[in-house]
Write a structure and sequence with these properties.
The chain is globular. The protein is α/β, with parallel strands linked by helices. The longest helix has 16 residues. The chain has 6 helices and 13 strands. The chain has 2 domains: 180 residues, Rossmann fold; 45 residues, S-adenosyl-L-methionine-dependent methyltransferases (N-terminal domain of TfIIb, Single Sheet). The strands form 3 sheets. The protein has a 7-stranded mixed sheet, with helices on both faces. The chain has a 4-stranded antiparallel sheet with strand order 6-7-8-9. Strand 2, helix 4 and strand 3 form a beta-alpha-beta unit.
Length: 236
C-alpha cells in the first residue's frame, strides 16, 4: 500500500503541517507536567519532522520512526539533531525512553497490513516495557463517526483533491495530487485506508498493558478534529 510517496509527502509538509505545529505547545505541556523536561522521546509516525524539530529545539533527544521513505528524507533535513528510522512502528525496535508520541492518527493507518487491534495491543505492551517508570505515551486516533468529505487545497506549486469515505470501521482517503515540475505539473494518486477505533477500546487495551490512562479532546488549546481522541498513558 502507498505510504506518502514524494509528491504527497511534500504537499502534506508544506500544506498540512499546522496540526503538528499547533499541537506542539500542548504536547510540551503534557511532558512537563509529567516531569519530563529532557531525555529521549520516540516519535512514531514522525512524518516530515515538525514535532521532532520542536522537541530537539526544547532540549529533548529524539528518535523518529516513519514507514514513508519520502517523509524520513524531509525529517532529516528539518531536524538534523534527531535520529530517524524508516520502518513500520510495529517492527521497529523501541529503545529505553522517557516518552513515546504518535501524532496525527498514526495507529489508524494500514500501510502495514498487520496493523489491527490485536497487533496494537501487543505493541502497547512493547511501549510500556520501553518506557522508564513515570514515562508517558501520547497519541491520537480517528474514531467511527466520520462523514463523507470531498475537498481540495492548493499552494504555489501544488494542488490536491481528496475524498474521505467512511465504511463501517474503515475510512478510505483517495487523493489526487498535482506538483509543479519545471513548467508542467506531475499528477499522482494515493489511496489510504484507516482502521477506526473507539476511544473506549483503545483505553481498555492501554489499561490492559499496565498504563494509567487519560482521554483528551484537545492538545492544550488546540482542539482535535471531530471524531478524534487523544490519550495520555502513564507508566505506573
Amino acid at each position: 500500500m502507498q505510504a506518502y510517496h514524494s509528491d504527497l509527502a511534500y504537499i502534506h509538509d508544506v500544506g498540512f503541517g499546522d496540526f503538528a505545529r499547533k499541537a506542539a505547545p500542548g504536547l510540551l505541556a503534557i511532558l512537563r507536567r509529567a516531569g519530563i523536561r529532557s531525555g529521549l522521546v520516540v516519535d512514531l509516525g514522525c512524518g516530515s519532522g515538525i514535532w521532532a524539530a520542536e522537541l530537539t529545539r526544547h532540549g529533548y533527544d529524539v528518535v523518529g520512526i516513519d514507514i514513508s521513505r519520502a517523509m524520513i528524507e524531509l525529517a532529516r533535513k528539518r531536524a538534523p539533531a534527531a535520529r530517524f528510522i524508516n520502518a513500520s512502528f510495529l517492527s521497529a525496535k523501541l529503545p529505553p525512553c522517557d516518552a513515546v508520541t504518535a501524532i496525527g492518527e498514526c495507529f489508524n493507518y494500514t500501510f502495514d497490513r498487520r496493523n489491527r487491534r490485536r497487533a496494537l495491543a501487543r505493541f502497547f505492551r512493547r511501549v510500556y516495557e520501553a518506557l522508564r517508570p513515570g514515562g508517558v505515551f501520547i497519541f491520537d486516533i480517528a474514531e467511527p463517526g466520520r462523514t463523507l468529505r470531498r475537498a481540495h487545497a492548493e499552494g504555489n506549486d501544488w494542488a490536491i483533491l481528496f475524498e474521505a469515505q467512511p465504511r463501517r470501521n474503515l475510512l478510505i482517503r483517495r487523493m489526487t495530487t498535482f506538483r509543479q515540475v519545471g513548467k508542467l505539473y506531475r499528477r499522482s494518486q494515493e489511496t489510504h485506508r484507516l482502521r477506526l477505533y473507539r476511544s473506549s477500546e483503545i483505553a481498555a487495551e492501554l489499561r490492559g498493558a499496565g498504563f494509567a490512562v487519560r482521554v483528551l479532546r484537545a492538545y492544550g488549546r488546540m482542539p482535535l478534529p471531530s471524531a478524534n481522541a487523544a490519550f495520555v498513558a502513564t507508566k505506573r
